[in-house]
Amino acid sequence: MNADLVQRLTSPAGVEALLLADRQSDPSSLAAAAALRAAFPPELASAALSQTELRRRAQTKFGPSAAGMLFTRDGLEQATRPAVAGHHASRLVAAGAKRVVDFGCGIGADAMAFAAAGLDLVAVERDPATAAIARHNLTSAGTAVGSVEVVVGDAEELAAALLTPGTAVFCDPARRTANRRLWRVQDFTPSWPFVLGLLDGTRSAGVKLGPALPHSFIPAGVHAEWVSHRSDTIEVCLWSGTDDPPDSRAAMLLPGHRLLVRQTPPALEVSDLRRYLYEPDGAVIRAGAIGVLGRLLDASLVDAQIAYLTGDRLLATPYAEPFEIVDRLPYNEKVLRRWVSTADIGTLEIKKRGIDVDPAELRKRLRPRGSQAATLVITRTPHGAQVLVVRRAALPAEPR
Ligand SMILES: C[S@@+](CC[C@H](N)C(=O)[O-])C[C@H]1O[C@@H](n2cnc3c(N)ncnc32)[C@H](O)[C@@H]1O
């Protein structure tokens, strides 16, 4: 889609086309295409149908607001979830920001949260169609409090002019390659050196990156916060010019649980398995906050390299899921198959850490055909690989 077509979609004819597209039960069907083409030019008809598909898909992320927004396929995928964008905005507000430049705003999910939080906003996007979409999303939401400007251009060329003293900055760089497994700073755009420059401490700055960011890439003096939302660990955001202790790390479980790790996290001992096993949230693990959590739970590690904690007491925590260990088995498929059969297991959940096995494949080989449900945890322990039969512990975790 080009910027012209975005304009046409927001014109009265475009709005009519979108209304008709929304009445189609399957916007990808031939019948829907025929209905739209009977009333509108082919380009507009097809753009309205694609938008309708994207809006329906976007409901998972944006809820009812998706119905009034415009998207590109990539833009929707890359857009920050509203709850997380709201968290970014509240951090900038807490840092005293009044004006923010969002470099690489995409379809505007973060930008919408900044504008709704009362910040004056300049949103920069180099792709003209995506910028036109961000402009639509920002203006049609009607939630902006301060001034809103969307600029089409290259962040790296515009930075010197836009970053006036006192202006905060946010950047959620795109990846040039589709390879999600390989974490390469060379793939970022705006470029990694540019992104690092934003974090030089001369202003309040937030940079959103994937949660797999190796700690060695975090610049000195910066605070790194890994964020989980609805049990997904979705990002790490690097912050500078905020009130966070320099070089600290945190696990943020939205909406409101935050575990802070200062420079040297406490070391935990490894112990034999105790009554309870705690499975920490992904943000806690990524942030290196296991030691802090272990202290809170009076728990130790099951292995120096494995992110399971074990303790004698069942304590409520939002940072980990607690299990009671009800049995221990050797890591031996024959023994496990016999156990599954004897215990009449039909629904089998398998978790594993530090053991090279595919749980889905193992489940098939164990042939669970019975009437009972069970959870197995395969992990390294001080006594080698073991399989723990566990059940979710009764004490509910604090609400997230
Ligand atoms: C990950 S997306 C941003 C998503 C956005 N935070 C949101 O929540 O909707 C990154 C965006 O940066 C844009 N971009 C990449 N390099 C840029 C550059 N040098 N200048 C301006 N925009 C850029 C891309 O076109 C893409 O739309």
Would you kindly provide a brief summary of this structure?
It is built from 14 helices and 18 strands. It has helices at 3-10, 12-22, 30-39, 42-62, 73-78, 82-94, 109-116, 128-140, 155-162, 192-198, 282-286, 290-297, 333-342, 359-366; strands spanning 99-103, 120-125, 148-152, 168-171, 174-175, 188-189, 205-209, 223-229, 232-240, 249-253, 257-261, 276-280, 300-301, 309-311, 320-330, 345-353, 372-381, 384-392.
Describe the structure.
The chain has 400 residues and is an alpha/beta fold. The chain folds into three domains: 3-57; 76-247, Vaccinia Virus protein VP39 (Rossmann fold), CATH 3.40.50.150; 276-392. The protein contains 14 helices and 18 strands. It has helices at 3-10, 12-22, 30-39, 42-62, 73-78, 82-94, 109-116, 128-140, 155-162, 192-198, 282-286, 290-297, 333-342, 359-366; strands at residues 99-103, 120-125, 148-152, 168-171, 174-175, 188-189, 205-209, 223-229, 232-240, 249-253, 257-261, 276-280, 300-301, 309-311, 320-330, 345-353, 372-381, 384-392. It starts with a helix and ends in an 8-residue tail after the last strand. The protein binds S-adenosylmethionine. The site of S-adenosylmethionine has 23 residues, from α7, β2 and α9.
